[in-house]
Structures are given as structure tokens and as C-alpha cells.
Amino acid sequence: MSYSVGQVAGFAGVTVRTLHHYDDIGLLVPSERSHAGHRRYSDADLDRLQQILFYRELGFPLEEVAALLDDPDVDPRAHLRRQHELLTARIEQLQKMAAAVEHAMEARKMGINLTPEEKFEVFGDKDPEQYAEETEQRWGDTEAYTESQRRVATYTKEDWKRIQAEVDDWQERYAALVAADEPPAGEAAMDLAEEHRQHVSRWYFEVSYEMHTCFAEMYVSDERFKAYYDSMRPGLAEHLKGAIFANAARHSS
After folding, report:
1. pTM for the full predicted model
2. Cα 230 from chain centroid?
3. Contact 214/222 with Cβ under 8 angstroms?
4. CB 185 within 8 A of CB 243
5. What is the pLDDT of residues 8-29, one digit of tens each?
6. What is the pLDDT of residues 210-226, one digit of tens each?
7. Which regions of 23-156 does DSSP assign to beta strands (E)?
8. How far apart are CA 51 and CA 69, in angstroms?
9. What is the pLDDT of residue 124?
10. CA–CA separation, 126 vs 63, rounded Å?
11. What are the residue ranges of helices labelled H in the chain?
12. How many angstroms separate the CA atoms of 93 and 32, rounded?
């Protein structure tokens, strides 16, 4: 039995465009074609798609997924065991974070002030203050840092709520874009990269396109920034870097 591309998209919860892309790059080539040349997917193709989507959810880039699945020395059962181990570890971490959030919600409802240790226990032994100190050490003598400090000193509670609302909305839309396998150089990704630049310029300091590409490099090279962006959606940091560079090139041409 075989299935059309539309049926498979419906089964898997992906777009037809994503399946076309996987075919184009050789990641998931349908086993059959109809007389009219339309893609037809077999049960074996669906098994491979399931493996692809598992690895994608775990943050593996498409190139690495292809290499893993096409390795002749790896038993298909080994993929399932590996994915089960990775998913179990993620579930445990998410459960810890969910418990921490519930603890914070309960404390706030009861009017209890959490200690710094309680607030950040889910993140291990990291010191949340070290980043502020490092920022001042690295950028304290720059005009951008001075301008940022001047602006934020004037913000009210409502200003901070608006800033956070903008951040949350942008994160949700960018995560959805990555989940849909939109390319970093596509219009949608470049537009969101531009929003990212404008947000910082509007609230903190003016960000040129050149400066924005420097930020993009840092989002990938610095593990803390990478972890922050990848927590929104696995692979988002690298995707955002590509979108920022594409957007900068678009505006310089």
C-alpha cells in the first residue's frame, strides 16, 4: 500500500513543502511515483520519516540525520534505543523545570519570596549574576552599553511587560518557523531576523546590520546563548544566525 504526499503530511503533522524539501535533498525519497509522476510513499518510507522527525525533535541537523539513517553499520533498532535514551533524558529535565515553575507559582500565590538558590536550582550551579558582571567587563566602555544602561534606567513596570510580550511573541513565531523547516534565507526568516534587530534597537541601543551579524556569531559560538535560543526550538540558534546574515545581505544589496 502506498500513500500520497498529502496523506503523509496529514499523518506526520508536517507540511507538503517539508516533504518536497526532504525529497529534494535526498533525505526521504518516496519509493514510488504514480503514472502522473506524483510521489507515493510506502510503509518503509513512513518508518524512515518517523525516524527523521524523532531526530529533528531532538535537535539534530538534517545533514546529520541523513548520515545516521544511511549508515549501513547501524541496526534500525539502535536508532530507536538512542532516541529513547535522549527523549528520556529530555523528559526528566523538562519535569524538573516544570516542578520548579510550579514551585514558583505556588510561592507567588502564597506571597512567599523565593531565595536565589530556589529560583535557579533547576539550572545547577550556574551563578545568574556572572553574566551581568561579564557583560559590563566586556562591553562596559562601549557606547552601546552606556546607551543601554541609560535607557533601561527609565523603564517602568509597564515598559518591561511590553518588552517581555514582544520577546515572547517573537520567540513563538520563530520557533514555529523552524518547526516548519522554513529556510534561514527565506523571506519569513529574514523578516523575523529584522524584527529581532529592531527590537534591540528600539529598547536598548542602535544595532547596525554589521553588529547584528556579530551577535549572530555569538549566538552560536557562546554555549550560553546557543542554549538559550535552542531551548525555544532545537537548532534555532544556527537557523537564526543564517537568517540574520541573509537579512544583512538583503539590506546591503
Report:
1. 0.49
2. 4
3. no
4. yes
5. 999 888 899 999 999 999 999 9
6. 888 988 988 898 888 88
7. 32-33, 39-41
8. 8
9. 46
10. 33
11. 5-12, 16-24, 43-57, 62-69, 76-109, 116-120, 130-139, 143-152, 157-179, 187-203, 209-221, 223-230, 236-252
12. 41
State the Cα–Cα distance between residues 214 and 172, nearest whole angstrom. 24
Closest C-alpha to 69, from 86, 49, 88: 49
Q: Grid coordinates representing 205?
A: 541601543
| Whole-angstrom distance, CA of residue 90 vs CA of residue 55 | 13
Closest residue by Cα to residue 18 from 70, 68, 44, 56: 56
Q: What is the DSSP letter of 233?
A: S
The full length of the chain comes to: 253
Report whether 213 contacts 152 (CB < 8 A). Answer: no
Give how far Cα 54 sits from Cα of 50, 69, 130, Å.
6, 12, 35
In sequence order, what are the residues at sequence separation of 6 or more whose Cβ sits closer than 8 angstroms to the Cβ of residue 138? none
Residue 183, pLDDT above cutoff 90: yes
* Crossing angle of the two packed helices 157-179 and 236-252, in degrees rounded to 10: 100
Written as nine digits, the cell of 127 is 551563578
